[in-house]
Amino acid sequence: MGAIGPYHYKVWVIGDILDRYESCKNGARKPKAKLFVKPNTEEKLHRNAYFESIVIYAVDIENIIERLESPLREIIAGRYFEGDVRTFMEDFGIRNRREARRLIVRAVNKFFHEVEKYRKSNRTNRTA
Question: By the 8 A CB rule, do 17 and 35 touch?
């Protein structure tokens, strides 16, 4: 097994962030709790990828999701990026598979970019 590609890395990170966010939202932790997103080093799938731990507040994840335009918001919130593209096509009435896939990739890239922007701005705020 080789290194994972950028898209699959983003999907993994976003999935982990959403898992932790949903556990906070469902009462496992306080809504303003920090989410510690740290890679599982035992997974062979990710062995050649570089990971950096992320600390982010649950309310900030919620704000990032809410700022996304539709249907990107629904793709991330509904976790359509983890499932079969046909489910997304059926749920949103999209007939073109390529268009549906393009929207999913765009949602993943946009959400990941916003999380990275948040992480970098917080890192510079802590060092300043």
Answer: yes
Give the integer Cα–Cα distance in Å for 8 and 15. Answer: 10
Name the nearest CA neighbour of 48 among 37, 58, 39: 39
* Angstrom distance (rounded) from CA 75 to CA 23: 19
Cα dihedral 83/73/17/23 (nearest 10): -90
Q: Left (φ > 0), alpha (ψ -120 to 50) or beta: where does 106 sit?
A: alpha
Alpha-carbon radius of gyration of the chain: 15
| % of the chain at pLDDT higher than 90 | 45
Its pTM stands at 0.78
